[in-house]
Amino acid sequence: MIKGLKICGISDLETLKYILKHQYPPKYIGFICNYKKSKRYVEYEKLKKLVNIKKNGVSFVSVLVNPDDKILEKIKELNFDFYQLYDVSPERTKIIKEKYNIKIITALTINTKKDVEKYNDYHEISDLILFDGKGYEKSIGFDHELLNFIPNTINKMIAGNIKIEDIPSFKNKDYIIDLSGSLENEKGKKDLNKINKLLNFVIKNET
């Protein structure tokens, strides 16, 4: 049984409100806060307005790639529950967590078993470990069998070009599933019909 859903890359208020008001909202919603290469990136002034909303029990996640002190200071008062950190050392991760009193999702990009084993450097300081593909904004997948040796005591999130129809294959896994690109239309915008299908599909398959 999967442990929940994260919908990542939300960048507009209409989509955000739709998700938050859904009968079966996800546990997490992610916002791209400093990675300008991503089409899902949200400028700070827009981000500030976007996340200033009643969350209805959903955790908001600030997705950050190797963030510098400037962006961390800018977003520290915003309505986030987690920082999802890519390309940040264990030492700096600990500093960020303690300084900003924030929960941490450490994101590891995976191609080989050696990449997966890096979780050992982070699991004691992170609230969740996200195993993602190497593509960053390109939604590239990886071999999920590489994760089979990780103990159940590790809180795991998995991403990387996961599609709605893939979810039943995770039914015996204790993962939080993170989707983004598979919920978009051909123009790269989040598709409310696909989001609705996802949220209803997961509930149906949990019963």
List keywords for this structure.
207 residues; alpha/beta; TIM Barrel; eight-stranded parallel beta barrel; 6 helices; 8 strands; globular
- The CATH topology corresponds to TIM Barrel
| Helix run count | 6
- What's the end-to-end separation, in Å? 10 Å
CATH first level: Alpha Beta
CATH architecture: Alpha-Beta Barrel
Would you report the number of β strands? 8
The unreliable regions are none
**Major sheet: arrangement of strands:** 1-2-3-4-5-6-7-8
- Rg over CA atoms, rounded to whole Å, is 16 Å
User: In which range does the helix fraction lie?
Assistant: 25-40%
Structural class: alpha/beta
By CATH, the superfamily comes out as Aldolase class I
Your description of this structure?
- The chain is of the alpha/beta class and 207 residues long.
- It has a single domain (4-206), classed as Aldolase class I (TIM Barrel, Alpha-Beta Barrel).
- Helices cover 26% and strands 20% of the residues.
- The protein has six helices and eight strands.
- The chain has an eight-stranded parallel β-barrel with strand order 1-2-3-4-5-6-7-8.
- Helix 3 links the parallel strand 3 and strand 4.
- The model has no long low-confidence stretch (mean pLDDT 92).
Short account of what is shown:
This protein has 207 residues and is an alpha/beta fold. It contains six helices and eight strands; from the N terminus they run βαβαβαβαβαβββα.
List the topology elements:
Blueprint: E1 4-7, H1 13-21, E2 28-32, H2 44-50, E3 59-65, H3 69-75, E4 82-86, H4 90-100, E5 103-109, H5 113-117, E6 128-132, E7 156-158, E8 175-179, H6 192-206
Parallel strand pairs: 1-2, 1-8, 2-3, 3-4, 4-5, 5-6, 6-7, 7-8
